[in-house]
Amino acid sequence: MDTPHTPHRERPSEEPAGQRPVRVGLVGAGPWARVTHAPTLAAGPETELVAVWARRAEAARELAEPHGAVASESFAELLETCEAVAFAVPPAVQAELAVRAARAGKALLLEKPLGPDVASARAVSEAVTEAGVVSQLVLTKRYHPTTRDFLRRAAGHEVSGARSCYLHGAFLGGEFATSWRLEHGALLDLGPHLVDLLEAAVGPVTRISGTGDPRRWIELTCEHSGGAVSQASLSGAVRLPRANTRVELYGPEGELTYDTAELEHSECWPVLRAEFAAAVRTGRPHALDAAHGLRLQELLARALSS
User: Region Disordered: what ranges (predicted)?
Assistant: First the structure.
């Protein structure tokens, strides 16, 4: 028998909405939800984790209880308890449930890719637009101060060409070697991060092509609106002591390099949380929204079909 749910503590009604933490429900109870989403959303003060729903009820309870949240018995029940929904599930599950959440008027904190294919990603983006709800992507590195400093410097740097990579060995085994990652490979899992960084640093991608096997190693070549050309190497199946994410910009002024080797990823989460809560409370779309996620997925699909 399920254990009784702990009633959620209602906040005083006289507290201004802009000052109340955003009440977030979390979908998923896997490793990424345990390590990142739940502790980040529960830490506040901008957000409050109020509920968790997962396919396995026991996993949802085990994740919810230490953070003072309840385990919802259904996705519909989770929607009734929150004003925003965060997703930490495979792309196919996210694509289906995010559409339902948007239609229910909930703000969305989304993983990448939005869905397993462009059609499902477009359905999410269109649902967000039609419902007029706020959405935001967990493109982790974009929330780190070091990344933002690099992008500020890149804005004033004339770029002729760029090289980049995102490489690790997580697909070789362990809890992150999940079935959807093994099926789709690095292009859909790592590609959104790297193509997003290249667009932000070099300019919009106008043409993209790819070669290789996304499950082993894939190489992308991008042409950018300003005339620069960039290359991106992606793999989740190479044995490395740690993930290697690097962007090198070259031009008449010299080299500008971004490297995540020394980054503390824990510095990303408070920024992400604060910006998501601000977007929800103001109703102003975040730059890294579902429409941006759709654009990234369309680019990656073009690379795969080239």
Answer: 1-22
Distance CA 181, CA 213 (A): 13
What's the pTM?
0.91
Q: Could you tell me if 119 and 204 lie in one domain?
A: no
Tokens of 95: 């694509």
153: left (phi over 0), alpha (psi -120 to 50) or beta: alpha
- pLDDT, one tens digit per residue, over 49-79 is 999 999 999 999 999 999 999 999 999 999 9
Based on the fold, state whether residues 162 and 116 are members of the same structural domain.
no
Which residue shows structure tokens 């995540």? Answer: 260
**Residue-number span of the structural domain to which 232 is assigned:** 145-261
Mark whether 129 and 175 lie in a shared domain.
Answer: no
Pairing of strands 229-235, 161-167: parallel
Q: How far apart are CA 106 and CA 83, in angstroms?
A: 5
